[in-house]
């Protein structure tokens, strides 16, 4: 006699359904773009009527918010190996830039939701934005560890890396044109953001 799978609690069933809905929303976003689908499309994809989705997400904005949070949890997880690795600090910064770039180009829908404003009305919740802030705080810490303390450095760094990733996805999808200049860009950034010997 086969053992019976454990019975899920109501909260576990709800969370499982929420994950199914979010996964389907990502699938639709990759197929049609972040704004190219509606709740009716999503309901059909998961076998629900659109009004039933409101049991799990209060609005489409709330669904985007969960997708945003999931994206930053994934980026944070991608960085985890760097936080414990025994590396010279400059190598850590370089490896972090590579992780960010590869993460960004791996999924254009996720790149757009996390780093571009393609949904004008969407603003992440404070809870979800806190996840983004954690990632930025780790990056800022890594830059300070190599002596880069300019308050504008974080903005310059993220703008350049996001720009490279966006160019790669937009103009050479599946290729390596901008990936090939990533290390060179990082060299330029490190040299340009380093404090002057006089300062």
Folded structure, characterized:
The structure is a single chain. The chain starts with 9 loop residues before the first helix and ends in a 6-residue tail after the last helix. With 199 residues, it is an all-alpha fold. It contains 8 helices and no strands. The longest helix is centred in the middle third of the chain and has 25 residues.
Write down the secondary-structure element order.
Answer: HHHHHHHH
The helix-and-strand class reads mainly alpha
Uncertain runs are none
Which shape, going by the Cα principal axes? elongated
Helix content: 55-70%
Look at the structure and give the mean pLDDT: 93
Tally of alpha and pi helices: 8
Radius of gyration: 20 Å
| Main sheet attributes: strand count, strand direction, barrel closure | none
Number of strands: 0
Q: Tell me the β content.
A: under 5%
The N- and C-terminal alpha carbons lie at a distance of 75 Å
Summarize the SSE layout with pairings.
Elements: H1 10-32, H2 39-46, H3 60-84, H4 89-106, H5 108-115, H6 126-145, H7 153-171, H8 182-193
Helix pairs in contact: 1-2, 3-4, 3-6, 4-6, 4-7, 7-8
């Amino acid at each position: 006699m086969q053992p019976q799978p454990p019975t899920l609690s109501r909260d576990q069933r709800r969370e499982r359904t929420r994950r199914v809905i979010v996964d389907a929303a990502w699938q639709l976003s990759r197929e049609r773009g972040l704004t190219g689908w509606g709740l009716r499309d999503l309901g059909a994809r998961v076998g629900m009527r659109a009004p039933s989705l409101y049991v799990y997400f209060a609005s489409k904005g709330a669904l985007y918010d969960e997708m945003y949070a999931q994206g930053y949890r994934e980026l944070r997880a991608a960085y985890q190996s760097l936080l414990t690795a025994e590396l010279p600090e400059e190598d850590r910064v370089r490896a972090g830039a590579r992780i960010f770039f590869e993460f960004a180009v791996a999924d254009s829908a996720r790149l757009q939701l996390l780093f571009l404003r393609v949904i004008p009305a969407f603003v992440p919740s404070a809870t979800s934005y806190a996840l983004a802030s954690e990632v930025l705080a780790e990056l800022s810490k890594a830059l300070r560890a190599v002596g880069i303390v300019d308050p504008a450095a974080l903005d310059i760094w993220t703008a350049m890396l996001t720009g490279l990733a966006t160019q790669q996805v937009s103009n050479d999808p599946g290729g390596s044109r901008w990936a090939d200049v990533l290390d060179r860009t990082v060299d330029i950034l490190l040299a340009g953001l380093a404090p002057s010997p006089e300062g």
